[in-house]
Design brief:
This protein has 158 residues and is an all-alpha fold. The chain is built from 6 helices and no strands.
Amino acid sequence: MKHRWQVAISAGLLATLWAGAADALHLVTWIGFLSCSTFFAQTHAGVKGMLMAMATNLSGVFWGWLIISGSGVFAAPSMAYILTGIATSAMCLQASHQRLAFIPGAFIGCCITFALSADLSAIIPPLLIGSALGLCMSLLTTQLVFLTEKVKTMSVKR
């Protein structure tokens, strides 16, 4: 990786700020980090990438909620298995829509929902903030790379 130091500074600084903000606001820190990771794992950059991360993660939250809620309605344990299969298929099929094309993002959102027993008020805020955190890390890294290259150019001219 050519710009390892810039990435490290950006990620370290913004991770520190996120951890502190999440603690102060009583948000689940690791959800934000998973959402931030979704931003970097999918293929789009900038705002488009942030929106892709948000959309796919939130779709997974919906599917996880549907499995948990639907399983509670039916007394048969096998219904949870059937709903899991249906939701898994749906998360894969929804990728035919451009805004939902990153399948792992949906699975991440679904897993978060299982981990927090579908507590949407605890899931959604850090999930959305985490996607924005990824965008901010990317933008800060770009600025640090620009400044580094500018300093190199200025020192060569001397």
